Amino acid sequence: MAEAYRGVIGAFPYAFRHGDSLFFRLYVVIGTLAAAFVGGLFTFALIVWIGETASAPGGSLTLSRTFIAVLGLFAAGPLLAPTLLVARKHRKGLSYHPRYDTIMAALGFAFLLSLYLAAIISMPESFTLDGETVTRPPPSGLFAPIIAVLYAIPQVGALAPPAGSMGLIAAAHYLLSR
After folding, report:
1. What average pLDDT is seen over the chain?
2. Which Pfam families does this UniProt record tie to the protein (predicted)?
3. Rounded to the nearest 5°, which phi and psi values hold at 128?
């Protein structure tokens, strides 16, 4: 069983093949693509930030560059965690809850949603883009009341949805693995 599992990269096809539910297999595909997309966004943000601050001396700019990389890990890592945890469970033949794969996939999708909520919460009222001041769009449509509440949360509150979701993934893994 473990012969097809060759490190982190091999864990994804392994988890896809050995997953117990179709929902989990869907998450393997979507979660991996989302993690690659988020990782790419943070990589490009880091490249742009280094380019914009290349002539400045080190110090706090070096710290902010590192902060962007760490944020990227905190955003992409939990997207990969459900897949890697399920692959590990199957590879080692460990006992786990019968719905472990499905629950981990649901929590992975919840983390993806929490990143979206964090992006809405952290959006400033106005910002400058190419020398032009842009204001965030007003809430409209079916989800306007929810968007209005998210806009009202202070920007530092954007950390709460992903942090809470990461905690749920860790707690579920711990509780369902017993």
Report:
1. 88
2. DUF8056
3. -100, 130
Instruction: Return the number of other C-beta atoms located less than 10 Å from residue 140's C-beta.
Output: 9
Token digits for 102? 């499905």
47-69: burial string, b at 16+ Cβ within 10 Å, e else: eebeeeeeeeeeeeeeeebeebe
Residues 114-129 as b/e (b if ≥16 CB within 10 A, e otherwise) read bbebbebbebeeeeee
DSSP, collapsed to helix, strand or coil, labels residue 41 as helix
The set of residues, in sequence order, having a beta carbon less than 8 Å from that of 115 and lying 6+ positions away, is 38, 75, 161, 162
pTM of the model: 0.86
Which pLDDT tens digit goes with each residue over 90-101? 888 877 888 999
